[in-house]
Amino acid sequence: MFSGIVEELGRLLYCEPTGLVVEAHLILEDLRPKESIAVDGICLTITEQGADWFRVDTMPETLRRTRLGHLQPGASVNLERSLLANGRIGGHMVQGHVEACTDVTTVIEEGNSLLVEIALPPALRPYVVSKGFIAINGVSLTVVDTSEQSFSIALIPYTREHTNLGEVQPGMPLNLESDILGRYVVNYLSQR
């Protein structure tokens, strides 16, 4: 379980069909192989690590469902260690189970924030609601508004400076994970 509060921007060293290697520093202080880490919102298991890097295994489903297959060496990735049972949840409950990869459609400067419109995959429409939670590349965000085809979020300067969402531009692929509590409620009500 994660909170969607990114701890560090890592750098992708290489990505292959069976795994990837990421350069990192801060998050490696207390991590060991076999532990979970969220890489751009994807819950993965550390299999090897060095002084300033770690390796995780990937499977074809991971590459199909997420933006990892689109990334080139040198790309920045959001990193978050799994939650400690005695810690704060600053964002919302994030599983690290990416449901879809979709594209940014528009970016508009609005005061000190960026208003970002993102294509809404049909399968996620019931779960993405105005003022609800969503994890984008592993970042816990609030949905500003929704329509049949898209939804919008606003990025404050801090989020842009400390996550890879600071690179957002039209056409950029993003990993999406809708709010697990919302998914449970919709599922329960649909079975009544």
TrEMBL record:
Entry EC no(s): 2.5.1.9
Protein keywords: Repeat, Riboflavin biosynthesis, Transferase
Domain of life from the UniProt record: Bacteria
Pathway: Cofactor biosynthesis; riboflavin biosynthesis; riboflavin from 2-hydroxy-3-oxobutyl phosphate and 5-amino-6-(D-ribitylamino)uracil: step 2/2
GO molecular function, one term: riboflavin synthase activity
UniProt catalytic activity: 2 6,7-dimethyl-8-(1-D-ribityl)lumazine + H(+) = 5-amino-6-(D-ribitylamino)uracil + riboflavin
Residues of the Lumazine-binding domain: 1-92, 93-189
Keyword Transferase in record: yes
Record-linked NCBIfam families: PRK09289.1, ribE
Protein task: Catalyzes the dismutation of two molecules of 6,7-dimethyl-8-ribityllumazine, resulting in the formation of riboflavin and 5-amino-6-(D-ribitylamino)uracil.
Name of this protein: Riboflavin synthase
